[in-house]
Amino acid sequence: MRLDKLLANSGFGTRKEVKKLLKTGVVKVDGKVVKDAKVHVEPVEQEVTVLDDVVEYREFIYLMMHKPPGFLSATEDHRQETVVDILQEEDKIFEPFPVGRLDKDTEGFLLLTNDGQLAHQLLSPKKHVPKTYYAKIDGEVTEADIAAFREGVTLDDGYETLPAELKILSAGPQSEIEVTIVEGKFHQVKRMFQAVGKTVTYLKRLSMGPLELDPDLELGEYRELTDEELELLKENR
């Protein structure tokens, strides 16, 4: 790993700030002063110090975001803002990416990490990781819809969904529901309701796997996972 990236990931500022730090001669690799940002180091095998303090290397970052509407679940887009644009520079340095997608107009729980193995486990169709959503529906959601979701519905492209758990919070011309699915097809919740003749007007993801959206996170805010939350995620691999 490049020395400037290692120092940036370890909290010593942006790459630009790290380059200035290196020029001052306070950074050593295995006891020798190094001023070149491009030097590659083995973080686990070599000792890197700043002002003689050993740098504790950190490889991964795990972030819980309350995704706001209007942002793409992507790492970059030339025309529209993405969830990564919300992040502070010290977190962007780790190059995290969203685990799965939330539609542009959907809000709620979104996990971002640079741990590709964990992301793969969470997104694997074989794992059937549950995701729970709260939604407002144009149309009256009925017991028949609950039964249909329990069986699995046929989407507009002919795909048969796996069973989903639908809970009615309030029913009427405008209904409120919670639904738990174990897949991540494109626009899946919206298309499932289309399949039973209804329209989703508001959608918010409440949880993914064992993790629930922190109620203290406002729209557009994020925080690192706690050790307990990370342990829960890894236990569910």
Mind explaining what this structure looks like?
The chain is of the alpha+beta class and about 240 residues long. The chain is about 25% helix and about 25% strand. Strands 5, 6, 7, 8, 9, 10, 11, 12 and 13 form a 9-stranded mixed β-sheet that branches. A hairpin with a 2-residue loop joins strand 3 (about 50) and strand 4 (about 55). Helix 1 crosses helix 2 (about 15-25). It is elongated and about 70 Å long.
Q: Main attributes?
A:
alpha+beta; nine-stranded mixed β-sheet; four-stranded antiparallel β-sheet; 13 strands; 23% helix
Number of helices: 7
* Helix-and-strand structural type: alpha+beta
Distance between the termini: 27 Å
- Give the tally of β-strands: 13
Integer-rounded radius of gyration: 22 Å
Please outline the major beta sheet: 9 strands, mixed
List the helices and strands in order: HHEEEEEHEEHEHEEHEEEH
Instruction: Identify the overall geometry.
Output: elongated
Fraction in beta strands? 25-35%
| Helix content percent band | 10-25%
**Parts with pLDDT < 50 across at least 5 consecutive residues:** none
